[in-house]
Specification:
globular; 10 helices; 16 strands; two-stranded antiparallel sheet; six-stranded mixed β-sheet
Length: 306
């Protein structure tokens, strides 16, 4: 392309022409971007009143109202001491008995595991049970320990295990592996539990208590009973206590009435609250054969007086 200007000729090459078009296009595009950005910024400025604080705040501010918590735990007032006797049987044979106290004055449990061979007035509890069942065993224990027993529960091993398992297993430490079998008992049994922290189900629970009592380890039997009480009477118990009570009265011989159970609701609220430290006392008895030793007998008596 030639342009005449005055005396000289000026030439623009084809390459320069293409570069010029490209530059004009870029300049135009840049101008459009700048214009769009300016309009966008002005629009945002108008929306947020040209305030940086409003711009960076969320569209919808979420507010959390503080909930005041009362550090003081308010629980129903409870008091009194209630004694229970539990007997577990199989084929009309007494497997073990346990005296249990719910002490609401001190918010604690007390337990004593009793051998079936425990002698009262020259006769074993096992023989007394075989002839006259739990009500008579209750009377004998009251006389033996000079205490009053408010309620009794007599239950077959199979039904006890089912209710126990419905409430969940119990975690207990086992110091050494236990392998034991008794074929000579009126109700033969065996138990095999590994060492360490173990989750004990109903079957092993019953057999372990039998094993401990049979081998004069009454303290261990008491500790196992306390573990069962402490771990089963928990917040989840409150949600299923009516069902548990129904299963208990349906599958056992007991003098615990519906009214008795209803009146115990405040006690359950206290005993199942996680913020309440429920105490435990193992009032284990020491034996000389089938006889509780005099010194041990005096000690146990003190736990169940009201």
């Amino acid at each position: 392309m030639r342009i005449f200007k005055n005396r000289g000729d000026i030439y623009f090459s084809k390459v320069n022409k293409e570069k010029s078009i490209e530059q004009r296009f870029l300049v135009t595009a840049l101008a459009a971007v700048v214009a769009f950005t300016a309009v966008f910024v002005i629009a945002l400025g108008i929306k947020y009143h040209f305030s940086a604080k409003e711009f960076f705040a969320p569209e919808k501010e979420i507010t959390y109202s503080a909930v005041e918590t009362d550090e003081t735990l308010i629980l129903p007032e409870v008091s009194g001491k209630t004694n229970f006797i539990l007997t577990v049987n199989k084929e009309d044979e007494l497997l073990f008995a346990a005296l249990i106290q719910a002490d609401l004055d001190n918010v604690s449990y007390k337990v004593t595991a009793l051998k079936p061979e425990t002698v009262y007035d020259g006769e074993s509890l096992a023989n007394i049970y075989k002839r006259q069942k739990t009500e008579k065993v209750k009377e004998c224990v009251e006389q033996l320990l000079t205490c009053s027993v408010d309620y009794y529960v007599d239950i077959n091993q199979k039904d006890f295990e089912e209710i126990f398992n419905d409430m969940g297993s119990v975690s207990v430490p086992v110091l050494s592996e236990i392998r034991y079998k008794n074929k000579d008992s009126a109700v033969p049994y065996s138990v095999r539990v590994r060492a360490g922290e173990q989750n004990i189900k109903g079957g092993d629970f019953v057999n372990l208590i039998r094993y401990f009592l049979e081998n004069d380890m009454t303290s261990s039997a008491g500790e196992l009973l306390l573990a069962g009480l402490s771990q089963h009477i928990n917040p989840e118990f409150m949600e299923q206590k009516e069902e548990i009570y129904t299963d208990l009265v349906t599958n056992s011989d007991t003098n615990i009435t519906v009214r008795d159970f209803s009146l115990a609701d405040s006690a359950f609220v206290v005993l199942t609250n996680e913020k309440v430290g429920v105490g435990v006392y193992n009032a284990y008895a020491e034996y000389d054969g089938g006889e509780i030793t005099p010194e041990s007998l005096q000690n146990v008596k003190g736990y169940y007086s009201k």
